[in-house]
Amino acid sequence: MDAKADKEAKKMKESGGGGTRGKHRDGGSAKKNDGGASILKAASKIDFTNTEDANEWDAKYKQKLTKKPGNQILHTLAKMEGDTEKWSSQKVKEFLDWVLGRYHNLLKERDSEYGSQDGPMPIHTALLRGNACFVKAVLSNKDLINLNDVLPQYFSSRNTLHIAITSENRSMELIELLIEKCAELKLDKMFTAPGGGGGQDATTKNTPLHDCMAMDRTEEGLEEDDESSSSLSSDEEDDEGNESDDGDKGSVRSPEQDRTTKDHDWENVKSPLTARSPNSSKHPFGGNRRVNTIMIPGTAKERNDMLRVVKLLVDKHYLALMATNDSDKESRTPYQERLYQLRMMHSDKDEEGIQREIAKDEVANYIREYCIRNLPRDEIMKCLYHRGQGETEFHA
C-alpha cells in the first residue's frame, strides 16, 4: 500500500474513522459537529421507500444537508461498522438511493476532519474501510448523475481505482465492481492515470495496473540505509506445487511474429531487466533511498486474486500495458515493473535461478502472451522492453 495512503488509513482507524480531531477548517470545534451521527440516527428509523415518511425527514434536516461545508453524513455512514441491525445492506442502499437522488453533491464532500480540502471523499473512506455495502450501493445507483465525476477524484495521490487495489481492507468484489463501472462509464483515464507525482514525497507514478504488480507480496524491515544494499529473501517453494514448463509458456506466436523474429524465440529473448541489479535501484514504493527489506511472497489466493485483477484491467483497457510509471530515473511498464519486483524478491538467487522464477510467474507470462497474441510488433516492444534495449537484444 502507498505509504501516504497507509498513513491516512491508520489515521482513520485511530480516530474512529476520522482524521485530525479538534478544530475544523471552518474554525469550529469538533464537538459542535457530530459528523451527521444524529441525522443518521434519525434516518435509521425512517422507511425511505415510504414517500410520506421520507419527505417528513427531509423537511426536518434539509437545511443541515445543504449546509456548506456539509455535515459529513456520508463519511459517518461510510465509517460505520457493526451496526447491521439499524444499517443493513438493504437499509444503506435504500437511504443512499434516496439521499443521493436529492443531494448528490454530498458524495463529493471531503472529510472535514482532515482540516483541508484534500481529505477523502465518502467513496474513498468506504474503500479504505472495506465498507462493501456502501460502495455497492453507490456503484449500483443507476440514477446517480455525478458518479463519472466522483470516481476519478484523488485522495492521497491516488484515484478511486488505485485506492481499491492498494487498500489494506481491499475486497476483490469491490475491485471488480469498480473496474466494471469505470469501463461502463468510459472512464478510460482511470486505467492509465498515474498516482503520485506533483512533488509528492515517497510516491511513484504507478497506474492501477502497476499497483497490481505487487499485490501478492508484502515488505518487512523497511529502513533507510545509505551504506548497505537491499537485503532480500524469499520463499523458494511454489505454494501450488507447479513446475515451470519452459516449452509451453509464452510460446504462442503468430505468422507475423515468425517473420519478424526469424530464428529468435520470444521466450528466449533476454529480459530488458536481465542485466539490472536490484541493489543499485531505488525501491519503487519507498522513495529515493536504498533499503534493507524482506519481500514476503503472497499466498496462492493472493496470487490468484492478482491475476484476476490484471486480466480484468487489461481486458477493459489494454493501453494500460504501455503506460509507464516514471519511477525514479527508470520508467517501467507494468510488465517491466513485475520483472523488477520478481528480481527484488529473488535477489538471493543467481541469474539462472532468477530467470526460472520469472519463467514460471503467471502474471508475467499472462502479460507476455497477451502482447504476443494481440498486439502489433511495435506495441509488443513498448510493453516488454525499455527503449533501445529491445531492439538491441532482439537482433542479438
TrEMBL record:
Signal peptide: none annotated. Residues 221-246 have a biased composition (Acidic residues). Residues 1-36, 219-291 are annotated as: Disordered. Residues 1-14, 25-34, 247-268 have a biased composition (Basic and acidic residues). InterPro entries: Ankyrin_rpt-contain_sf. This is Uncharacterized protein. It comes from Immersiella caudata.
